[in-house]
Sequence to fold (111 residues):
Amino acid sequence: LAANQLVQKKLADMQTEIALGLHGALALGRALERGVAAPPAISMMKRNNCGKALAIAREARDMHGGNGISDEFHVIRHMVNLETVNTYEGTHDVHALILGRAQTGLQAFLP
Fold:
């Protein structure tokens, strides 16, 4: 599987997104420690990292074909866990509304 060019490209894309998310979270954490992080930045990071993690897990499941839904390979377990994380961290759309409010000054949802 790993010797396939398309698989290697997908793995490179996954690794890149994971590294970017990790460094973004680290920078945000350091900004929070210094007390200089804007609250919408938390929504941006949660929205991005949860979305990317879920997309990566879905891609990994797809790369494994039928084995991607088998308990033997654990890919589906990680994907389902990430669906849960996406829910309790706040949905993609809720964080988008928080970011939209920060950008426009207008609240598009009722608190």
In short: The mean pLDDT is 92. The radius of gyration is 17 Å.
